[in-house]
Amino acid sequence: MAPRYHVVTLFPAMFAGLTGYGVSGRAIRDGLCSVRFWDPRDFTRDNYRTVDDRPFGGGPGMVMLVEPLDLALTAARVTLRRQGVSAPRLIYLSPQGRRLDQAAVAELAGAAGLVLLAGRYEGIDERLFARHCLEEVSIGDYVLSGGELPAMVLLDAVIRLLPGALGHADSAREDSFVDGLLDCPHYTRPERYMGLEVPTVLRAGNHGEVARWRLRQALARTLARRPDLLERRVLSPLETELLGEIRREGDAASAASD
Ligand code: ADE
After folding, report:
1. Residue 135 sits in a domain of what CATH number?
2. Is there a single domain that holds both residue 18 and residue 96?
């Protein structure tokens, strides 16, 4: 069964970018997954369709009311249960959450159903956590003005991993982070542009050499830009050998520039 993604948001129209374009748009059109929206305003009882109020204890900004969110989340869960998804994961996008990484994305891509809650204002009434088992997920250490963009980031990363979403079966496997390393550089035609050449090894047609070059480039980039990724990773003998070469060359280069 194609996974079902439900999003609770005050601004469903923002998601047109995700649902209408590119890899995610095509995956939805092809029925690889479905995305449905729930607007908390549709679960209000007053004429103004109020979804927020001032915080108890004072302070700046507004807090999202518990009831419209509680009812919207319940509606999403009940709908999913009727559709055969009995225990969907409920995710609240928030800077307080666990930081999203490729391993978490891969795990979420295996879920039959997800309910994403995109908040606005200063946040949500804390009592919502007592009503629903919400996981908090952050997309990075910076603050956005709402959870819609983070929800789209998460969904885009998840949907492109669904079987059939990417043209090439290999494209997702070779992405940055999949293997715990950054991606290698890529080139396409022309072979020479403004005097800049495509590396010879990529044009020579020796697949073994190409694979070795790509791995070496990925390791060199990871060492230069994200050494923390290498510390967490168990290296293969070839990777250890290549990394040794890279480090020695780096030493040679910095010694030459002293
Ligand atoms: N909402 C606001 N900022 C966010 C972030 N960095 N990650 C997830 N949700 C957010």
Report:
1. 3.40.1280.10
2. yes
Q: Strands 52-53 and 63-64, how do they pair? A: antiparallel
Calpha distance 106→108 (Å, rounded): 5
With H, G, I as helix, E, B as strand and everything else as coil, classify residue 143.
Answer: coil
Pull the structure tokens for residue 144: 């956005």
List residues near ligand 1 (CB under 6 A): 93-95, 138-140, 142-144, 147, 150
150 and 202 part of one domain: no
Instruction: For residue 180, give both structure tokens.
Output: 């715990």
Residue numbers annotated as active site: 95, 122, 160, 175
Task: Kindly report the pTM of this predicted structure.
Answer: 0.94
Residues 10 and 129 in one domain: yes
**Tens digit of pLDDT for each residue in 9-60?**
999 999 999 999 999 999 999 999 999 999 999 999 999 999 999 999 999 9
Q: How far is the CA of 145 from the centre of ligand 1 (A)?
A: 8
93 three-class SS: strand
Residue nearest to atom 9 of ligand 1 (CA): 94
* β-bridge mates for residue 134, sequence order: 90
